[in-house]
Request: fold
Amino acid sequence: MNMHSHLDHAAEQSAGTTTTRAVAAGTPGRLARTGVIGLAVLAAAATTAVLAPAAGAAPRHGAASEPAFLEPNELPPHPTSAWYASPVTAGAPDPLPFCVGPALPGATSVHRSFWTEYDTGAVQVTVVERDETRAKALAALWNKAVRECAAKAEQDPDVTAEFKDYGKLNVEEGANVYGIHTAHAWGGSDINLFSVGRDGRTVTVVKWGQMGNFQHAQVADFKRTTTTAVNKLY
Reply:
C-alpha cells in the first residue's frame, strides 16, 4: 500500500475555540502503539477490510426503524483518494477507537469503519438507548471521554497530547466537536477529530484521524460530516 505524506490543509478553527494543555491523569497505555491512528495500523485495517469483514462480524441489513450511517462520500474529502467503508456491523469496532473505545457499550453498539488508500481513516458508532434519559447519559459519558483523553494519553511518558474544543453544532439535540493532537518520542504525530451527537434516544460518535497535527485537521469538513451523521440518525 502506498503511504502519503502529510497533508497541507490549514486548520480552520471556529470562533470561541479553546485550547487545553493536557494534564496527566488516569489510564495507562502505550497509546503510541495501540490507540492512535498510525500508518501501519491503517494500512493493516484497510487491507483486511478490502478483502472481507472481520471474522465473526455480523453485517446488519438495514431496517426502516434503524438509524442510517454515513456513506463514504460524506466524509471529509481526501485530496488523492476515495473513501471506502465496511458494512454496518453490530458490536463495537475492533480495535476499539482511540479515546472513546473504553466507553462504548459493546452489546448495543453498531458501527461502520472507513478508510482511504493512504493515511486517513474514520469510524462511526451509534447506540439506540431505551429512552432519552439514558441517551443523554451516554452522550455525556462520550463527551467526557474525549475531553479527558489527552490527559490520559500523557500517562505514557513517550506521548504528549493537546486538546481543542471546536464547539457545539445546532443539529437535532446537538453535537460537540473536538480535536486531539498526539506526538510521540519516536517522531510520530497524529491528529484526530471527534464528534458526539444525539437525536432523541439515539447517540452517535464519529472519529476521523490521520498523520499530522492541527494544521492538517479538516475541521470545517468534519463539522459538515457530523451534521450529516446526526441528521441521518432518523
